[in-house]
Amino acid sequence: MIEPRRRRTEPPFRELFDIDVLRAELCALADGMFSGDKPASEIELRSAVAKRLKLAYAEGHKVAESWLMADGSGRRCAERLSRLQDEILQLVHELVVKYLYPSDNPSTAERMAIVAVGGYGRGLMAPGSDTDILFLLPYKQTAWGESVAESILYVLWDMGLKVGHATRSVDECIRQARGDMTIRTSVLEARLLLGEVALFDELMRRFDAEVVEGTAAEFVAAKLAEREERNKRAGQSRYLVEPNVKDGKGGLRDLHTLFWIAKYVYRVRETRDLVAKGVFTPEEATLFRRCESFLWSVRCHLHFLAGKAEERLSFDLQREMAERLGYVSHPGLKDVERFMKHYFLMAKDVGDLTAIVSSALEERHDKPVPRLNRMIARLRRSPNRKLKESPDFIVDHDRINVADAGAFERDPVNLIRIFYYAGRKGLAFHPDAMRLATRSLRLIDAGVRDNPEANRLFLDILTARDTAEIVLRRMNETGVLGRFVPDFGKIVAMMQFNMYHSYTVDEHLIRAIGVLAEIERGDRPEYGIANEIIHQIKNRQLIYVAVFLHDIAKGRPEDHSVAGARVARKLCPRFGLSAADTETVAWLIEQHLVMSTIAQSRDLSDRKTIENFGAVVQSLERMRLLLILTTADIRAVGPGVWNNWKSQLLRTLYYETEPVVTGGFSESNRNQRVARAQAEFRAAMLGGTSGASSGWEPEALERYIDRLYPSYWLRADLAHKVEHANFILAAEAEGRALATASRSDPKRGITELTVFAPDHPKLLAVIAGACAAAGANIVDAQISTTTDGRALDTISLTRAFEQDSDEIRRADRIASSIEKSLSGEIRLPEVVARKIPKRPRAFTVEPEVTLNNSWSNRHTVVEVAGLDRPGLLYGVTQTLSRLNLNIASAHVATFGERVVDVFYVTDLMGAKIIGAARHSAIRRALLQVLDADDETNAGAASDASPAA
């Protein structure tokens, strides 16, 4: 039987307050209120006690925070806060039974034990944790017990505490624990606070004999399934850049799950006891305590900093958290990035510990053996057989394992070979093999790294069509990948402190390899042209190596693209690439942001844009490789970043540039593509597919097609073309000069607002201002005009509500503001100044304004880059208007917190902007908008930016 936890009588550390002094003060308070001719009521006493205890509780938290800042021990802080709660409950109970419901000679039914359960039962509480307590009764509730429990709860509630409570008999506890796994786990962690010891001991004895005995496999399966479901909700990857410290993968709850399983299956009280059971080595038990201590430090600091039970390490808290925890900046890495890297390394260690316990459970047959880890089993193999290709490995229930503990010592290349065979044969990894690999990393030295066989195997792993992502991730988790490729090791667990990337750098690179494999298999139509051209490239190994290395130099003081090219020139020959192939990979890495930047922020109908891009890529093969790399890079940034707009823009840039790099610009080629796009649209509309309206006659459709410029047909995807046509048809049928439409896109986390209106220079500013006034953030914009002087603008707004109906209502309000602004009913500057939301800045982005006359033959290109905020686009477009600049086209996109807005402008005479003084004046005016602080510049403006 597991020895039950009891209330500690002697604290192992200083108290947060003197309980004896507080007890005397409260007793004096109660004596005074109950003396005299008119004694106080129960409610008055409870209120007075709660008020004084609330003050003591707050003072105790302040002391705990100060000690946490001084000694840095999060676990110690959690113990102190739990002890503080113990003392509060003891005082409340003493006052209730002494002054309100005394029972000098209690009957058998009037016995009660007050038990801490859940996290409180473990004796660990974060500043914002709930207080979970069980009022344990012998067999049924009595009026006395009900009154005592109710009075204690009222005091705790009046103190403002979040209390989870239950009142049950021992029989009820046992019955409910059998049927409810949550209650079972809660009782498993029970700790006696005060009251009847015999009653508590009876509960623990019966729980052990009637609930725990013989149900280990059931409990383990339930807890692991619960963990899997929790990870799905929080995000499967432990490398999300805004992790949940409590419930995220690799967070405290995963450690709690290990603790529950250990206590239930192995009948131990502390995780260190698992060493004697042979589950952990002493080093692994130390690692468990180190992970637990670190995560408790993070969680306690997070609660104190946020002033509430905040579990998510959001961007606006990460920087201050790093400062509280004592991290400092190093060259190439900010303090916050060093803190988050440490966090992700700890999350990885938690994952390793989970695998170790899972392996031990399988050996005991308390956990079902998985057939494959995300791989498809072809045949059910024998439980244990030798791998015919190598005597150093065996296959154990479809999982590759080492034949003996000396497999890696005999031949260190086996540390690479085991992953090669796993990928080639579709085998999952046995936890024991992965554990041994992690403990054998010292064997991977310069000799292994330079070994031709090891590098050949690694290149095969990297370029495998079906298993590369899975196998590389396991190599990374064991530490083998970072040891074999030390430059990769430098970016393991490295986060980028921005809102654009959803994953750490190493996770981003591994996911990009997975995307690349999907492109090659052709099973994801949304990747567009990349699916078509990947089979036209001459050497598929080049693109896999380039994708794997493209961000490998992140975190260095210099430009990561330039530094990454240098790393590639060092590594590619080691991988077996020729000198020419090495140079191609280095070029791809150095230029890996160019295609995305040009596609999203340049006018693709401007011949100069195409000529400039053609001068960069120079050959069709390089452009194909660059497009595939760009697609994989953007898609692997995070959910919702890749979309049909970006796919269509890359397609347009590719086909516009193709004739340039193959022998000269060809108008006929472009005309053919426009004609194909129009034919596709025509077939959709008249064929009634893709949501097309039946209201179109062939003649009317041809007139509509002629109204839109060629650039529109090349830039927009078919779904938007159909939507736009139906929208314009309905608007003109109703005789509306100005029309708006909206649609929600939950998958991308945006809402699209389409505006059809008479074109004029300030239209974009009006749209941006209306969005700013509504607090809506513009993250993308597609600006088009028709041959008859109409504007067709589609604006993408950050989603604000979960429900589509709420989003559409918000979009309708913005559309109404646009109409009223254009009709003169409202003055936008005043509305924006009054309604623009003020937001704290978690990030800093150096503002930049660039004016360039060489990027276009007819226009001056103005590029504005800086920190995104509501109202930024409005401020920029208003400023351009005040400077008497005519916006011919605008290209708006956001990349997390960074915006890059590009405007093709002329003066009022239609000429380029000439003269250094004029350029300087424009630059100063726009920098003022970018530099304006949210708190002081209400009239400033919203959004936009380029690649992964």
UniProtKB/TrEMBL annotation:
UniProt-listed Enzyme Commission number(s): 2.7.7.59, 3.1.4.-
Highest taxon of source: Bacteria
Record domain ACT: where: 752-834, 861-937
Domain HD, first and last residues per copy: 505-626
Annotated segments matching region Uridylyltransferase: 1-386
Domain notes: Has four distinct domains: an N-terminal nucleotidyltransferase (NT) domain responsible for UTase activity, a central HD domain that encodes UR activity, and two C-terminal ACT domains that seem to have a role in glutamine sensing.
GO function terms (MF aspect): [protein-PII] uridylyltransferase activity; phosphoric diester hydrolase activity
The protein's name: Bifunctional uridylyltransferase/uridylyl-removing enzyme
Regulation: Uridylyltransferase (UTase) activity is inhibited by glutamine, while glutamine activates uridylyl-removing (UR) activity.
